[in-house]
Specification:
Elements lengths: L2 H4 L5 H46 L2 E5 L1 H7 L6 H21 L2 E5 L17 H5 L1
Parallel strand pairs: 1-2
Helix pairs in contact: 3-4
């Protein structure tokens, strides 16, 4: 055997060690990223489930224009009869909604609300058609 065959090339061990170290660092880095993403996903889902459970427990809310109901929703031959009927219909509607778990608020006591929370005021003429 000659000396060239018996002696390993200089620096081969160092290059292999450097490649292994680079692979180890990349592997640990990728594993850390994967674990972080998985933890964030689990935390996000837990938060969403908690929020959904809380929203289920809250009552639905509607805002009612009381004067509009009394003025427009009543039937009758004169103003007094229409106002009394409108008031009765508002009371019955509010009680029915309350039985279904809806919180009914008078518009005069509410400072602001989104439009989709407003309970539509029926008109007696529309009901007759």
């Amino acid at each position: 055997m000659s000396e060239l065959e018996a002696a390993p090339p200089a620096g081969t061990g160092e290059a292999q060690t450097a490649r292994l170290t680079t692979k180890a660092i990349l592997g640990i880095g990728l594993w850390s990223v994967f674990v972080s993403i998985a933890a964030a996903y689990v935390a996000f889902n837990a938060g969403q489930q908690s929020m959904q459970a809380e929203l289920v427990l809250r009552p639905k809310i509607v805002v009612v224009d009381t004067f509009g109901w009394i003025k427009n929703a009543g039937r009758g031959n004169n103003t007094q009869e229409r106002y009394l009927d409108g008031s009765r219909r508002l009371k019955l509607t509010s009680e029915e909604l309350a039985k279904k778990g809806v919180l009914v608020l008078d518009e005069s006591g509410v400072r602001g609300y989104p439009a989709d929370m407003r309970l539509k005021t029926p008109h007696a003429q529309e009901d007759d058609q």
